[in-house]
């Protein structure tokens, strides 16, 4: 039984420049993972992009929750003010109206 390697469709070749020390560390990881440089870089790029999207979504949600908190606080203050007026002493209201 043989395993056929299915090539990744629409591959583009790129050239990058990296410092020697980074390349040595990278090659060590590649060898440790039993992968080739291209596979490792593809996985790293996918991971980075997914992590970046996750962080952006987290920040958007955080901003939305903060905006909703401000809206809810404003509504609560308005309702508190209206409730406070509703429970004021009716005698005071009558006295105010007679002035």
TrEMBL record:
Domain Ribbon-helix-helix protein CopG: 12-51
A Pfam family this chain is assigned to: RHH_1
SUPFAM superfamilies: Ribbon-helix-helix (SSF47598)
InterPro entries per the UniProt record, alphabetical: Arc_rbn_hlx_hlx, CopG, Ribbon_hlx_hlx
Protein's name in the database: Ribbon-helix-helix protein CopG domain-containing protein
Gene Ontology terms describing biological process: regulation of DNA-templated transcription
